[in-house]
Amino acid sequence: MKSVLLNVLKVIWTILRVIFVIVGSLGSIAAGLFFLLCIGGLLLYALATGWENAIDLCTPSILASLGIFIGFILIRVLGTFQPE
């Protein structure tokens, strides 16, 4: 009985690991692209209004995109974890 339960838990953990790797990979790619989009917006806004206004406006979105990127990387790392 104990080995059957252990095998069921291993299968569930394997499915969760695959989901974490897929979600983490796709999410980190999307967050990286969003980060590049924020940097591009910063540069364009700096050309239009000056660096001081651009940095004030774009800093929160850049920091948020970096936080999301790091979060998705941690989800992917959790998916590659093998407790054995």
> In terms of per-residue confidence, which ranges show pLDDT below 50 for 5 or more consecutive residues?
none
Overall pLDDT level: 89
Ends: how far apart?
20 Å
Beta-strand portion reads under 5%
Oligomer: single chain
Number of domains: 1
Major sheet size, sense and barrel closure: none
Number of H/I helices: 2
Shape: rod-shaped
Helices and strands, in order, run as: HH
Structural class: mainly alpha
Helix proportion of residues, in percent? Answer: over 70%
Radius of gyration, in Å, reads 20 Å
Number of strands: 0
Transmembrane segments: 12-45, 57-78
Keywords: Membrane, Transmembrane, Transmembrane helix
Give a structural overview:
Keywords: Membrane, Transmembrane, Transmembrane helix. The chain crosses the membrane at residues 12-45, 57-78. By secondary structure, this protein is mainly α. The protein has one domain (12-80). The chain is built from 2 helices and no strands. The chain has helices at 2-49, 51-80. The longest helix is centred in the N-terminal third of the chain and has 48 residues, at 2-49. The chain starts with a helix and ends with a helix. The relative contact order is 0.18. The model has no long low-confidence stretch (mean pLDDT 89).
